[in-house]
Amino acid sequence: MPLVQTRGAASAQGFGEFAQATAANYIEDVFSTYLYTGNGSTQTITNGIDLSTKGGLTWTKSRTTVDGHGLVDTARGGTNLLQSQSPGSDAALAATTFLTTGYDLGNAQGRLNGSGTNYVSWTFRKQPKFFDVVTYTGTGSNTTVAHSLGSVPGSIIVKRTDTTADWAVYHRSLANTQYLVLNTTAAAATGATWWNSTTPTSAVFSLGTDASVNASGGTYIAYVFAHDAGGFGLTGTDNVISCGSFTTDGSGSCNVNLGYEPQWMISKSSTVAVPWEMGDRMRGWTSDNGSNTNALYANYSYAEGAADSYLKLTSTGFSSTNQLQVSATYIYIAIRRGPMKVPTLGTSVFGLSARSGTGANATVTGGQIADAVIVKNRGSAVASLFSSRSTGELGTGYLVTSSTAAEAIAGVTILQANPWDVMDGVKVGTTSTITNASANTFINYLFRRAPSFFDEVCYTGTGVASQTFSHNLGVVPELVLIKRRSAGSGQDMNWPVAVKGSGANAYFSVPGAGGALNLTGAFGLVDPWVNNFGTGLAINSSTVEPRYVTWGSPGGFESGQTYVAYLFATCAGVSKVGSYTGTGATQTIDCGFGASGSRFVLIKRTDSTGDWYVWDSARGMISGTDPSLLLNSTAAEVNANSVYAISTGFQIVSTAADINASAGTYIFLSVA
After folding, report:
1. Is 492 helix (H, G, I), strand (E, B) or coil?
2. Quick one: which of 45, 303, 433, 505 has the most CB atoms within 10 Å?
3. Are 571 and 350 in contact (CB under 8 A)?
4. Please, which contacts does 115-118 make with residues 24 or more away whose CB atoms are closer than 8 Å?
5. Can you tell me the distance from the alpha carbon of 515 to that of 523, in angstroms, rounded to the nearest whole number?
6. What percent of the chain has pLDDT over 90?
């Protein structure tokens, strides 16, 4: 069945401290994955979800201990807990208090807040065309139950709460005479007495007489999920939840197009007895296939890591290669990745930290959820590390900005295992001079993916003359960096770059000796990606199309090879991608930042050789203290009185040829 493809750009609305009030709905307002460590006492989970006035469900699972799931909802109240792996009835719970920004865990809740135990909490807020929570009392005869989803449900999970009973699952991809059981691995079964052989409507769902769903006098809870119902984004037409199915081929592979990148999913084969697998981006669901994701299972109490997921993310859905059951049908519930709102504050999507190495495991914070990081040793000749949530096993893959080397998987001295499973920043390792050696100083740049600001895409080359990959930036990218992740040799291993220039012009890396991120050469108006931004196939608001050029071998799309693309754009008050002409004298670059000024500046000369210079406010962008680093070099920082932060952007005071030679041309990226 075809799925409606949606994009973030058309639906974007500001987020941050000064975001406008709006009636539009966004996924970040109704769903959250939150990671925390239990303290054995009271604890507030601040995830930005209004459960107090809107209602909803919290679904919690211990990651580090063998313990059952904990489902608590506003309809049954904060003192009642159900476990998805168990047919048992409601269990008593120290009171959970529902808040407008999350919820409070009651004192010493063992299953949800054990001291020193790591947890994941998924929160679903009630919202038309997304999710509803319904309680009812069984009649023992065929009946209907009203819901407030405002659309035809895609899936319904029902649990009897007054006594032992299996969890019943309806899914739109099955016949209305079929059901699945959440607390078992069983394939779909047929039973006309479960859903009364009747498909739900936008107002009600139907029940037969089976005691699992409708015993006379029994009490029940139903969790109701929408399917591709729109209702989100600025225009109210974007989909954020899909309840679909797919069938694997003869090798156990699949490729599913949702029209968006998911952040959470539960899946189960309806034809084969396998577990209910649950994955999310925060815990390490990446773009790599197999043995890379710490799976949890709705029907098991296993700790995380007892088994691995074999699904991988794509920019438009998910896929798997030779890893699933052969020729099997699977059903799923998938939720779109956020944020959908365009940022209004640089601090909500970009963080930086100048710090001293500790020689022990540490979390580098930036004030926001991070999806990518650049780390550079400031005082030593050590390479810059570029790592992102989507790459490598559990996000431990890293590249070197000054090198042609393939992606490496970080050892525990460089990045900790699953380095992105924190709510703020990234976890670095112990003794590496790249990230955290004692007596060394470092700078960290942390980027969050957000519409109009930054996106990252992992893709595999096809080897055709041109290849298009989709992105979720929502606007035309103005700075694109691509790096081959898999092993190779020669010019293919450089970092090709494209930057939108003025008018119809664009700057591109010249093959071999040109302005790739790891090189110093000039850029040119060559045509490896087609000299076109926004109006043609090459680079537009939803796709990038690197074209074949003779570099000795293909660049950006060699068949079977893996790549990552980092995309940046101008976002009002947050970031600016631009160009300027050198004057040989002090000049001001207005980025439109109001009073905030630049906190990060990247500059590269395009008409001649020049390094990739970086300045930032954490190390200093004021007179006498404005040290620069080079992304294309391992060199330590140098203080040279070059670039200062001013209220609207930055000021160039140097006459150095690399950043301000008279009549020289330059490109820059600046973040407020």
Report:
1. helix
2. 45
3. no
4. 115/38, 115/39, 115/40, 115/41, 116/37, 116/38, 116/40, 117/37, 117/38, 117/62, 117/63, 117/64, 117/65, 117/67, 118/35, 118/36, 118/37, 118/38, 118/62, 118/63, 118/64
5. 5
6. 77
**Per-domain residue ranges for the chain?**
131-225, 241-336, 346-447, 575-671
Residue 551 near residue 474 (C-beta atoms within 8 A): no
Q: What is the pLDDT of residue 532?
A: 42
CA distances from 101 to 36, 126, 629 (A): 16, 14, 40
DSSP 213: H
- Say how far apart CA 13 and CA 198 lie, in whole Å: 39
pLDDT in tens, 127-139: 999 999 999 999 9
Tell me the C-alpha to C-alpha distance, in Å, between residue 209 and each of 144, 214, 666. Answer: 11, 5, 73
Q: Could you tell me which residues come within 8 angstroms of residue 110 by beta carbon, excluding any fewer than 6 positions away?
A: none
Q: What is the C-alpha to C-alpha distance for residues 144 and 135, in angstroms, rounded to an integer?
A: 12
**Which amino acid is located at 602 in the chain?**
L
Decide if 126 contacts 133 (C-beta within 8 A).
Answer: yes
pLDDT at 534: 39
Pairing of strands 97-99, 31-37: unpaired
Give the count of alpha carbons within 13 A of 494, CB side only. 23
Token pair listed for 16: 């941050």
Residue 314 confidence class, pLDDT cut points 50, 70, 90? very high
Question: What single letter denotes the amino acid at residue 407?
Answer: E
Task: Please answer whether residues 471 and 564 qualify as being in contact, where contact means their C-beta atoms are separated by less than 8 angstroms.
Answer: no
Total count of residues recorded for the chain: 672
Give pLDDT, residue 235: 92
Q: Give the up-direction half-sphere exposure of residue 340: CA atoms within 13 A in the CB hemisphere.
A: 31
**Cβ atoms within 10 Å, residue 586:** 12
Measure Cα distances from 395 to 53, 407, 457 in Å. 36, 11, 13
* Of the candidates 332, 133, 149, 124, the residue with the CA atom closest to the CA atom of residue 242: 332
User: CA angle, 23 as apex, 19 and 25 as ends, to 5°?
Assistant: 85
pTM exceeds 0.90 for this model? yes
Which tokens sit at 327?
A: 């020729």
| Cα atoms found within 13 Å of the Cα of residue 35, Cβ hemisphere only | 18
The pLDDT of residue 432 is 95
Is the bond into 339 cis (omega within 30 degrees of 0)?
yes
Pair 659, 643: CB distance under 8 Å: yes
- Give the CA distances from residue 292 to residues 159, 373, 391, in Å, rounded to whole numbers and listed in that order: 32, 20, 10
